[in-house]
Amino acid sequence: MDRAQKEKVVEELGQIFESSGVVVVAHYAGLTVAEMQVLRARMSEAGGAVRVAKNKLAKIALEGKPCESISGLLTGMTVLAYSEDPVAAAKVVQDYTKENAKLVVLGGAMGSSALDPDGVKAVAAMPSREELIAQVVSCIGAPASNIAGAIGAPASNIAGILSTLEEREAA
Questions:
Q1: Are 43 and 83 within 8 A, CB to CB?
Q2: Phi, psi of 152, deg, nearest 5
Q3: Distances in Å between the alpha carbon of 142 and those of 107, 127, 138?
């Protein structure tokens, strides 16, 4: 890899480190290409990505970034899993480690907060952005549907009473 390619990789990694909600660092020694492709596919479905980069270049890209604290984790065969959603990458990696023990989580970063392996597990246990939005919408929508039901109920009661009165008069 020549100098221009290295500079391009450092720039790309720098953008990843700045824009990602979470970055998870893991060792992937022993994973086959097929197993890595499964991880990449799952991460892509969740809205994230997986990147293998030279540790030296990643450390250079980390300088001055909010998640600079993970530079100490970049030793050996490391893979970076990242996503804009602060939960997606951690969830996918944690789920994959349950199936494949060859992927070992070292830690990560959520913004400027460093995460140890237990921290990554805790983040993975949190609901995703979509789940949180659905919960908020249901909380907002429930009172509105209750109000609509309460407003509609007296009208139907009145209609029922009127029809009963009409039936009595007709009889």
A1: yes
A2: -75, -30
A3: 39, 20, 6
